[in-house]
Structures are given as C-alpha cells and as structure tokens.
Amino acid sequence: MNLQGIVAVSGKPGLWRALAQNKTGYVLESLDAQKTKLVANLSTAKLAALSEITIFGTEDDIRLTDVFEQMKSASKVPDAKADGKTLRAFFYEVAPEHDEEKVYASDMKKIISWFHLLKELPLFDEVDPTQAPAPEAPVAEVVAAEPELVAEAPKAKAKKAPAKKA
C-alpha cells in the first residue's frame, strides 16, 4: 500500500493528500467526496504522514501500514462507531501486540475510520515505493577491453624567476 503524501491534520477530520508545498506550509486536498482544498500553515498546524505513524506495542511499536495490511485481510472490519469492546476485540485480531493501556478506543476509532476512507482508493492497492524490492539488474557480460592510449597532457612551462637588477 502506498500511503506517501497522505497526511492527518490536527484539528481537522479525515485524511488529506499533500498536493504542493509553499514557503509557509502545504496545499492539501481532502480524500472525501468534497475534495476540499486547505493550506496548512506549518507554524500552526501539525501534520502526521500516515506512512510514518506507529501504534504503541507491548515490545515494539507497530507500523500503521502493517495494521492496515492486516485489516485488509480481516473477515469483517467493524464500523468506527462500534463500542469499545468490539473495537478492542478487532484490534486483538489485526494487531495482537498493541499496548492495551496506551491505545485508547478513540485511537482505534480513528484508525478504523481512516481504513474505511482509504480502502476504496487505488493507492491502497499500490506497492509502496519505499518498501518495493529493487528489480534485479541483469548480469553484465565482462568483455576484455583493449587498453586505451592515453595522451599525455603537455607540460606547463616553468616560469622564470624575475631577473634581479644590480
């Protein structure tokens, strides 16, 4: 899944696609049906790239993209407005190592609502360019090259020392 350029803006609902950057911030477009445009000022708004977000885990943090991959293969994803027990049971299915004390019901609701926004978009099925394996380069044949003649550069003339006047 390719989540490059998808951000969450603090204080704004939904997800946004970064379209351009100017000297004061970013020009964003909402991923919902309205396609609202927004200029997020870097000095006042906090942006979080979805590809960089992690969830608290019991041992290590869990990448949000890994949770989305598990949610993709889950049999049924609950609605974001479901009760906390239903959400917690679902999260144990898709992220069994999440920290129950640090991951709140509001966090789970937000992640599930993001999933429902993203699952219909084509970028959700694209391969992440940062995670894609590099294509194997064909093995080049070794050809014995003939030695090249190297022309010597002309030597610079030595400067004469100025003559001393007697």
TrEMBL record:
Pfam family, one: DUF5606
Transmembrane regions: none
Boundaries of every DUF5606 domain copy: 3-50
Every DUF6852 domain range: 53-118
InterPro entries, sorted: BVU_3817-like_C_sf (IPR049281), BVU_3817_N_sf (IPR049282), DUF5606 (IPR041218), DUF6852 (IPR049280)
Coiled-coil annotated spans: none
Protein name, as recorded: DUF5606 domain-containing protein
Taxonomic placement: Bacteria, Pseudomonadati, Bacteroidota, Sphingobacteriia, Sphingobacteriales
